[in-house]
Amino acid sequence: MAVAPVMKPAASSADPILKVEHLSMRFGGLMAINDLSFECRRGEITALIGPNGAGKTTVFNCITGFYKPTMGMMTLRQKAGKDFLLERLADFEINKRAKVARTFQNIRLFTGLTVLENLLVAQHNTLMRASGYTILGLLGFPAYRKASKESIELAKHWLEKAALIERADDPAGDLPYGAQRRLEIARAMCTGPELLCLDEPAAGLNPRESLALNTLLQGIRGETGTSILLIEHDMSVVMEISDHVVVLEYGQKISDGTPDFVKNDPKVIAAYLGVEDDEIEEVIAEVEEVAHEVEEGGQK
Ligand SMILES: Nc1ncnc2c1ncn2[C@@H]1O[C@H](COP(=O)(O)OP(=O)(O)OP(=O)(O)O)[C@@H](O)[C@H]1O
């Protein structure tokens, strides 16, 4: 007997870490995002999906401060209860004060530095604060020595989680592609984010690398409680690791719910097949007919 998918209500989170409300972004005559509202729940993995040009990267760029939205509010509530209105902060403040970290579609590592050095550079701010911003601080302050030791421990912790500890002393540029992606995520985790935004983390990965990525992300969710928001085209990754999926088309939300819910939502199927709204019923009927024929053929 088929088991009905468990559907969670999409927008009734008791503890959202991020609330996006009525977000719009206009580029000249193009409305890239149009009155978009959704939430990311604390400690969960939320995926933002949609066909090419749907506006996913633009939403990311608004959340992380690369773009100032034309309209709308984005409220990040930290664990301790402090709220940050992201649209009012500069990108470095979103990172430093609101504790939102991000990775990019194209990898941005310091390729000439070692894997370990990349993780230590990410903790530069913490180390500088501990030094009191003086040379004497660097040389003598116990606070700096303690922070320096802690930074190395944290870097080692994330190298282990990302399955990179064996490569700690190799130049980051020498790592295979999938390992560089995990290093970027480990580097972001060294900054202690409350929300980690990942732009297509599985792009270009082979199945083995994709599995290692899933393990890392599920470990982050399970062990640190860091909330994750990701854009992803690879549906196997989205369906396997997401708790919650938001689907965009032409800058608007067309579906919002559990992976099982959105996977079976006629509007999502139609968007990915590229059909008009009034053809949805027809397409669903055709899809069901084909599925039925395949099932009957298998039983013969
Ligand atoms: N800086 C910009 N200036 C003008 N138009 C832009 C800019 N950035 C994005 N756009 C346009 O906004 C729309 C949404 O683009 P966006 O990159 O956000 O979509 P996407 O869903 O991330 O697409 P993809 O999956 O292909 O990466 C597109 O029509 C794009 O051309």
UniProtKB/TrEMBL annotation:
Naming one, the record's GO cellular component terms include:
plasma membrane
Q: Which GO terms describe its biological process?
A: D-alanine transmembrane transport; L-alanine transport; L-isoleucine import across plasma membrane; L-valine import across plasma membrane
Which molecular function GO terms apply here? ATP binding; ATP hydrolysis activity; L-isoleucine transmembrane transporter activity; L-phenylalanine transmembrane transporter activity; L-valine transmembrane transporter activity
Signal peptide positions on this chain: none
In this record, what's one Pfam family? ABC_tran
Gene3D superfamilies assigned: P-loop containing nucleotide triphosphate hydrolases
Superkingdom of origin organism: Bacteria
> Which keywords belong to this entry?
Amino-acid transport, ATP-binding, Nucleotide-binding, Transport
Where is each ABC transporter domain found?
A: 18-275
Q: What family is it from? A: Belongs to the ABC transporter superfamily.
Q: What is this protein called?
A: ABC transporter ATP-binding protein
Taxonomic source organism:
Xaviernesmea rhizosphaerae
